[in-house]
Specification:
Length: about 400
């Protein structure tokens, strides 16, 4: 992630606050959950350790920004289906919208599966069900272990838990979701954008956000409201148009409820931020979006949370043209691999092959061969190619990673 910024760690000013809706009932179209004090304490401790991205005040006028930016152009999807329904997993929807857009920037446009997360996270049941309380860091932790996203279009990967709530179980067992198509990555991390800085001018907070959006990186946004403020926000959502502006949004702040959405752009004609919600559509909001003023009260408590992800994808700069697809082979088969780097720039390169079975080789040749074995059961080996620039041999620079799956049968 290329932030035009300095990175520091500072104390999070967030108070112990509840997150999402508290009471659940079938008549409430926008359900959510309430966190315990211990969960909130752990969340604040986690955010205290995140790198905080700041923008030097001298850069505010120098930052080049368009007059209108909407990253939803990278996210073609059916907004009527982008609806959490009775499930209080806005934290999953907001985060998934962000990584879907980031995947779209790579040329792979379309929604990623929310249902896959619901079905897999904490086994899709109990008090840890995805329709129960959750934070953005839970999303990051889960996918750091999984290492891939799957498309919404996969078999049984569209959202099935529309009418499922906390305390129940997913309606779609994980075993029924196809993972045949997937988008693998080797790293996903979270950063905190520098908006909550005592004494910082609002203009600098705005520029910190724009500096991320201008790199085609969407932002996960969490806000917190009082009971009356939450009711006011829901009413405004139902009655306002997508071009209306919630000018009194700061007055909604409180410690009772909260919500997580995706910040996808801005409009300089009315000085607003553009957000994608996970509440489907209304007759006045056919795109499921809403606008807030850029001049929010960033430093007042409870604070707004702006999070940006870094996703390091396989097969972007580095590819494995031979074999050109994943392979299914018998034990004892030797496979020849060839790697390629699209951004080598004529530098001397180091090719590091990890064959996923405890064996690896490295060298200057883009070609490697390896014999795969298994006994008793079928295994899938993740063959990972890492290409480093050796322009400075004492300090190799990572250029990218490629992945090829080799399934070995007895």
């Amino acid at each position: 992630m290329r932030f035009r910024a300095n990175t520091i760690i500072m104390l999070d000013l967030a108070l112990c606050i509840s997150f999402h809706l508290s009471a659940q009932n079938s008549s409430d179209p926008y359900p959510g959950m309430e966190f315990t004090k211990e969960q909130l304490k752990q969340h604040v401790a986690y955010r205290n350790k995140l790198p905080l991205v700041l923008v030097d005040g001298s850069q505010v006028t120098a930052l080049a920004s368009p007059t209108y930016l909407n990253l939803l152009s990278y996210f073609p999807h059916d907004q009527t289906a982008w609806n959490q329904g009775d499930c209080g997993n806005c934290w999953v929807y907001g985060s998934t919208a962000v990584v879907s857009i980031m995947n779209g920037v790579q040329g792979r446009q379309g929604p990623l599966s929310v249902q896959f997360f619901n079905s897999a996270y904490n086994n899709g049941t109990g008090s840890g069900f995805a329709c129960c309380p959750g934070f953005v860091e839970n999303f990051i932790s889960f996918y750091s272990g999984v290492g891939y996203f799957i498309p919404w279009s996969n078999n049984n990967a569209s959202f099935m838990d529309l009418h499922t709530s906390c305390g129940n179980s997913t309606l779609q067992p994980l075993s029924g979701i196809s993972t045949a198509a997937s988008w693998p990555f080797y790293k996903i991390t979270e950063g905190r954008i520098g908006t909550v800085v005592p004494g910082q001018p609002v203009s600098v907070s705005i520029s910190a956000i724009k500096s991320v959006l201008n790199q085609n990186i969407p932002i996960v946004f969490s806000f917190y409201a009082s009971s009356s403020g939450w009711s006011s926000f829901k009413s405004w959502w139902n009655t306002g148009t997508e071009n209306s502006i919630c000018t009194n949004f700061d007055s909604f702040k409180g410690s009772d409820f909260g919500h997580t959405v995706a910040l996808v752009g801005y409009d300089e004609s009315d000085s607003t931020w553009i957000f994608l919600n996970s509440w489907g559509v209304t007759s006045l909001r056919p795109n499921g979006t809403f606008k807030l003023p850029q001049t929010l009260s960033y430093n007042t408590s409870p604070t707004y949370e702006f999070d940006a992800f870094t996703v390091s994808w396989y097969n972007t700069n580095v590819t494995i043209p031979t074999p050109s697809t994943d392979q299914s082979i018998g034990t004892g088969t030797t496979v020849t691999f060839t790697g390629n780097c699209s951004n080598s720039g004529g530098q001397p390169l180091q090719y590091v092959w990890d064959f996923g079975d405890g064996n690896s080789i490295s060298g200057s040749s883009p070609t490697a061969t390896h014999t795969f074995y298994t006994s008793g059961s079928t295994v899938t080996r993740k063959v990972i190619l890492t290409i480093n620039s050796m322009a400075n041999p004492m300090n190799p620079t990572l250029l990218g990673k490629g992945l090829r799956n080799i399934t070995v049968h007895p």
